Each structure stands twice: as structure tokens, then as C-alpha cells.
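EI: anyone free to look at a 321-residue chain?
SC: sure, send it
EI:
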Amino acid sequence: MVPPSNDEQLAVDPRSIVKNPNNPRLYFNDERLDQLRTSLQETGVLVPLIVYRDPEQDGRYVLLDGERRWRSALDLGFSEVPVRVTDTPSPVENVLTMFNIHAVREEWSLVAIALSLREVMRLTGEQAEGRLAEMTGLTRSTVRRAKRLLSLPEGELDLIQKEAHLDRNEQVHREDLYLEIERAESVLRKAVPEIANEFSRPEVIRQFARKREEGSLRAVTDFRDVGKFADVAKTSMVDRESIVRAARNLVKDVEANPTEVYEKVAARAYEQKELARRVELITESLDGLNLDGGLSEALKRRLESLRTKIEAILDSAGDNG
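SC: here you go
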């Protein structure tokens, strides 16, 4: 909520308003700013900006809400804009006010939320997802995703920020790309500690990001196959040397696509692992089957068909063995 105020309404020169240093860094789409400027040329600024008086300089105001309108008014050379003056907030109130004002607005990219959340955590010392969600009005899922972004090396965060104003289809360093990379790096490091010993976390993340930069990915979701690869790596279904060699190649070779590496080395083992899990579920269901009333004809046919299929697979496996 905006801090309590006397709701003083004024018309002020937009040049007397300054950007709030504690506010999140917002990234505005250039095309949408152009559309807003066109609209304001016709109607002027109808919705007041929310500001507070600058405690360090008389006659100056600090912006709380309305940065797009303020920027557009400056660009258009407006001599005055309507404002609503509120009381000066504390640093924590300042950031939390911005969350409550903007959390559901379109211009809040995940990276802007993440950087603001970092400021909240710095000012309050709070780290718990649930409490941060309550304080900011964000969902726990959004808090979790934002914290995952904050775990990235600063250089990667900078790349995301530099492109945040672009349309999604023009971005190379997208937030969803890095969420996939962060997850892939984490599971690979745990499943193949040999990779963790050979490459640092920032090195793996940078190499994975280069796959996007060099056009080696079909989609950012290709990195989800690293999770399947890691599942197989934790078993003995594929020999360890092949696993480590493939994982090392995945990191070192920018042209190595995660899906192709998975399909070449681990796909068959993963499919069998998943099938074994499903068979176990079926077995548990059969163990609990109540036969007091007999079996339906439909179930009998299915079980007989399944028995025939299982026998054929076991015979084939025996012959190949």
C-alpha cells in the first residue's frame, strides 16, 4: 500500500520530479512508450503521478508511481503534470510500495522483480520465500523464480537487463532461458560431480548461454533433457565413462545440443527407467486388486494381451543376451 498521506493534489513541472533511487529498475518497451506518447499528445496526463517531496531539496519531488507517464511528459515537453503528493516513505516502505503498486503490471519483468527483491532482502534481512511473498504481494512461485535469477553470475544478469526493453522475440538472453540453464546446471553438477570438479558454476552457465548465442538450441526447453540425462547418470544403466564424456562434451562444445546429447547417450536407458516405474505402479495396483467378484472381460483381455507382450519382450531380451 502507498504510505498514508494528506492526498495533496498539485500540478508541477515534470522537470522538478526525479526518479526514485530505491525503486526497481523498470524496462520499458520502446514501441509501447511511443504509443503512450501519442495518446498523451491528444489527452495530456489524466492520471496523477504519485510522488513525495524530496527531503534533500525544496521544490523537488521523488517519483513513486507513473514513470512511463513522467518520461513521456518530459519527451513531449509538457510544462506541468498532475501529481498526488504522499508522505516520505522509509527505504523499506519505498520498495514495498512499489511492489504493491506495480506487481501485476505488464512492465515488471522478472529481472526487475528480482533486483527489487534483492533490495527488500538487503533492507529487511528476510530470506524466507513465504514471508517475502507476504511482504511484496508476489506469489511464492514468483519469489522462487526471482531468487533463482539472483543466483546467476552478475555478468549474466547484466545481459538479461540490457535486453529487457526489447520484445520477447528479439531477446537472446531471456529470463526463461536462464531459468532453464540454472536448473540444468544444478542437476548436472549433482549427478556428475566430475563436471563440478572440472568446471566452475559460472563457467557452465556461460557455456550453456553461448549455445543460445551461437544458435545451437532448437528451443530454450532443450535444456530440460539435461534433467533426463542426469536421472540416467545417477544409475548404472549407462557406463560411467560414457556419461562423463558426454557431460564434458555438453559443457565444452558450444555446438553440442542438450537434446541430441541425451538422445545419443541416455534416451534408451531413460525410457526403460520410466517404463520400470510404470510397471511398478501397475504391479502395486494388481497386488491390491479385489478378486471377490471375479474379473471383467475387458480386464481379462487387457491382462492376457499384456502377458503376451511381456513374454515376447523377455524372450527377445533373452535371445539378445
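EI: Residues 242 and 265 are 7 Å apart (CA to CA).
SC: 👍
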